[in-house]
Amino acid sequence: MLINDLMEKSQVAFGTSGARGLVTDMTDSICHAYTTGFLQYLEQIGEINRTSETVAIAGDLRPSTKRIMTAVAQAISDKGYKVINCGYIPSPAITLYGLNYNCPSIMITGSHIPDDRNGIKFNKCSGEILKIDEEQIRSQNVEVIENLCPSDLPSEDKTAIQNYVNRYTNIFPNDILEGIRIGIYQHSAVGREVLVHVFQGLGAEVIPLGFSNNFIPVDTEAVREEDHKLAKEWVEEYSLDTIITTDGDSDRPLISDENGIWLRGDILGILAAKFLNAETVITPVSSNTAVEESNLFNKVYRTRIGSPYVIANMIEASLNNDCKVVGYEANGGFLTNSFFELYNKSLPPLPTRDAILPMLSLIILSKEKGISISQEVEKLPKRYTASDRIENFPLQESKKILERYKDINYIEDDFGDIFGDVLSVDDTDGLRVTFANNDVLHLRPSGNAPEFRCYNESDSLVRLSDLQQMSIRRLKELRG
Q1: Distances, alpha carbon 216 to alpha carbons 89, 203, 211, 212, 272, in Å
Q2: How big, in percent rounded to 5, are the helix, strand and coil portions of the chain?
Q3: For the segment 107-162, what is each residue's pLDDT rounded down to a tens digit?
Q4: Catalytic residue list contains 111
Q5: Of the residues 10, 64, 105, 111, which is catalytic?
Q6: Rounded Cα distance, 404 and 387, in Å
């Protein structure tokens, strides 16, 4: 059966970052078939052969992850390859392992979405699959093995996580964070112990917080109200300079200032790029326009939302001889496609979402200047962004809304009383509307779950809060 047909039948389909679906739909047979299709594709393009190849796997801490890992491992073995079980580690750590050892890698994760869902993220030897790879994987013809009985996973190999930790502890001086008190909100993030290890190893005083044995769907773009409350309580109780955390697979960062205010990922991205002295920045159309207004970078390129688009544009920029290339997303995921010289050492590229580098960059940036994180943020142009989502919003409903708003008159009919007249419309990804007063409304379906996302931007933080509430309320009213 073609993978494309299997995706339609099973409802486990490619989203922004790999195949995702309900855990009940991600049967062992489905996961085995998708992995087989991925490996067949790599064989077709000559990236792997069975003479000496290995395939690395890892997973997050969702209850369903181990089962899916065993099905994926069985598919790898059935294709004649050796399985390297890297254990439960962050997504960037398994990708880095594949880059270091020139082998494919597979991460079992649903990222930030609830644990009734999970996913499979495929990486070629050269890094994440791009949209052109996805199309070819969909065309693979595979056998679907019913009643699959996978073998146990091999013993864990600690090399991947050691290499990931060393990436930072070997580059930065071991006392560079001395005098900084950092709260690490651990919850159920797979990288929760890695954060403690890295930040303690660089001299910070670390206070672990909020450990959970149950999976918590922390979304770095739509922060839960309880997490806003916790951050403010923790910075006061423990006299913290900052709180750091990640989403479930620890590739998207979330960092607060000294007041317990969580920073937006697209603000963190600007400041991390500033710390690295980046010259070329790639970021999705949804990111804060302060990146252009800051005049910190030689070139800024805008893409569709999702790391595959950012990576593809980073590759193109490097091929065009653009220098010091980085990418970031509004969710905070930070990517590099150039070598960066730091403290007389060279940090190699990691062209996949990473959480540790941007958080380190901001903390060190503010420490070296002798100012707080909030003071560093205040230096940026006064543009503010927010995002929210309406859950259980089928894709077809989202498409109907976007189709309606191809006519600008309907946008003004539905939102004119909130925003005013339409200035311009950008359909790079979903619908991004800029109004005459420079406020922004951006609507798009999620690529990972049945959700409808709403982004707003304004030059006033107070107005932004009102815009976000009114936009979501209006969308719900229009939905009926």
Answers
A1: 17, 29, 10, 8, 27
A2: 40, 25, 35
A3: 999 998 899 999 999 999 999 999 999 999 999 999 999 889 899 999 999 999 99
A4: yes
A5: 111
A6: 21
